[in-house]
Amino acid sequence: MVNKMTDRKQLQEEIAELLLSQKLAVLSSQTPEGSSYSSLIAFAATGDLQQIVLATPRATRKFANIKYNPKVSLLVDNRSNKEQDLHDAKAVTVMGIVDEINLDASQNDLASLYLQKHPYLDDFLHSPSTAFLLISVYRYYLVSHFQEVMELHIRDENDLSAL
Amino acid sequence: MKTTYLLSEISHTAAKAFGGKAAALRRLQEAGSRVPATLCISTDAYRHFISQSGLKEKIQLELHRKNFSDMRWEEIWDAALRIRNLFLRQKMPEKLAREISNIVAEHFAETSVVVRSSAPEEDAAATSFAGLHESFVNIRGIDPILEHVKLVWASLWSDRALLYRQELGLDIARSTMAVVVQELIAGEVSGVTFSVNPADAAEGLVEAVYGLNQGLVDGAVEPDRWVLQRKEEIIKEHYAPKREKFMAPQANAVILTDLPKNKSLQAPLTPEEAAEIYRKAKKLEEVFGKPQDVEWTKVGSDFFILQSRPVTARQDGADDDRRGWYLSLHRSEDNLKKLRVKIEEVHFPAMISEAAELAKTELQSLSDEALSAELENRLLVKEKWTSVYWEDFIPFAHGMRLFGKLYNDTVSPADPFQFVELLSITPLLSINRNKALQKIVVYVQHHLTLQQSLANGETGNISNTEFNGLMDEFIGLYGDPFCTSYGSDKACDLSRRELINIILQMAGSTLNEGEKLNGPKANKAALETAFLKRFAKGENRAQAEGLLDLARASYKLRDDDNLLLGRIEEQFFLALQEGKNRLGKRFSDSADSLTENEVIHCLVDKGYKPGPGKERKLPTQKKNRLAKARQLLGQPAGPGIGRGLARIIGSTGDLGMFRKGEILVCDAIDPNMTFIIPLAAGIIERRGGMLIHGAIIAREYGIACVTGVPDAATLIHTGDEVTVDGYLGIVTIGQSDTGSAGF
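^ inputs. structure came back:
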């Protein structure tokens, strides 16, 4: 039991570290026809790994996709585009459900979190044409050592659907 | 981290850390020259400031918006203004501010200073392009000094520096800026000495003015000039100008002041003094090992050396290099005030009366020979005013920019273009024209039978005299907007049909133009009050008001001049059309493709056969739809979001097809086109700039506008669904994948 707790804590720390070290991630959404659609985005994650925020102009495909289907996944990794990435790089796949949040309302902590990581994006974030999005995470998959995969459950997916 | 040092603490070889100017000053000091008390702020301070604040990436984002080669000078100015505002609004990190404040308080607590740029690159290239970075004279107090240090940093990215970025070796990722803060020595006489005359290597040159040498450097005060024999160090010639003005420190600035009578009759230096300062420059040439250009000021009998740098020939670049012309657009307030008088009192009345005079001639009653002469005359008149447009009207637009800089320095608003709000108080001629058009629209809305007849195409035989009167009055006052230079692919007598189409479009729409006009007046008035409140003291207040007034004139005249030029052009095109109509019988269809000179020639020489007409080049539309643009980036020139079908406007004829709610896509909005703008849901322009005509009118109407989109008119096609994001400067082409995306 003690070991299990420690493992979870270690895994959590490892994921948190990776999320903190990276500024950009790949967001996967789904088109209404059912194709997957990937986009490079700037993100920030809360320390407890429960939430991830990002911003996008509303006229984009990814915004239309998530309005249609809010289930998304995110890939964050620390590749360096070198051979040793195969054993050295880590990647985390995030599963979650996305929702638009109102910047004017009580969610200012999340905006600060985002701007602390990306201070150069404040004009972009505050533009009326930009949507600020919150991913409520239900699961992480951490891949390291080429093929080792660890899962971290944050909450039950079905609980999130009801959000 | 220590960033700020006394001049005596730095090494003269440390140009990389403290910039070329600081290193040269240190060398002067070591060589025994008298230099003002100086503090040096290293490039580490700049680097620390921009990385701590996230400014580093913001500058990169701003300058990577599009390729430099695609940027017009106006866009470069806009980018420089945005970057300058970022520096103004960003607070200095506390530790850094404390360090600089402490040392400034110790040495310059009660002293007026000069805050000068000292770029590490300045040693090499910038000497040939002096004045690309900024210096500020007569600054007093710790906070103002810190503010001006930021402004000197910002000037690393000034429009001038960006124009000469290659020569300066400006590297967006790596370039830095050091600063020197010097005691302001208000000498009675100041000047510049060249140990070698750039124009003749056997000579040396001394230039001197009364007061500070800012007047000499920026050309506002003509100096006395002594030419010396370089070897013998004796005076060959003395050129005395008409001495009228001098630069003096006043309040927080330096101002141009009338020279007292006794001084205007006397040269600022005696021949002995001129020879003395020349010998000093020669000595400095030995110290630096190169001919020197030495800036100095004289207090009593002492010469203070302000800076010394290698003499280089001024480089203006190749013949096709227009940057010299762009830089010449930076005019002083004084110069612009004179220009305003010339434009308002001379040019505009002349244009109005010239257009009216031309309109008196009944073209139909002229013989072919007389028509040819008339057309030739109208071509000359048009060319004359086009050249006045470039020489006087375009430079006058700088009045807006001058005010914008003052406004941002004073208010540091979140939106660096907020100042434009204050300029749009007086109605522009094109807004007045749109209101006049609206009057006809309202009449048509209230007369359904008339509306029906117009819709049925019965434009030639409308018997409603009131309506005909309104149309004649409109065309009499403003000209027929379809009969001008823009494309001019329609005969002027057919163009009334097009105008009526637009009137019908407007009549069918529910929008009320009065309501659509942007911004409540109250907001503008509040901004103006808040701005002027910052100037409590009489003199400064009057200066701020004067500059605001100048900027308003500049804003308004930049619109009016285009419309007046349009009136002149209309007269030219009427004559050209008449000529082509007559020649139509001789050349059948090909008359339309004749150039103006061919028409002039053909009318008098019945046997003349022009060469094969040039085929009109249409913009090539890329047929390959497999690779196409989805999202394009430009400048956010008018806030708002507009969505609709694109309408590419290539010529006046296309305007007639414009439908309410469409997105207007064009190369550049010609002021003669602006009557269509109230119908548009958004505007996209290839030509870039925040203060260009299209952007100004879009803001007046509160229409989303993105300018400076390269290839806009070829990458976007008529009928494409387009979203114009005027907040971020993004154009999205094509539908969102779900119609129900819902925003």
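Strands of chain A lie at 24-30, 36-45, 51-57, 71-77, 91-101, 130-144, 148-153. The first strand of chain A starts at residue 24 and ends at 30.
thumbs up if we can close this ticket
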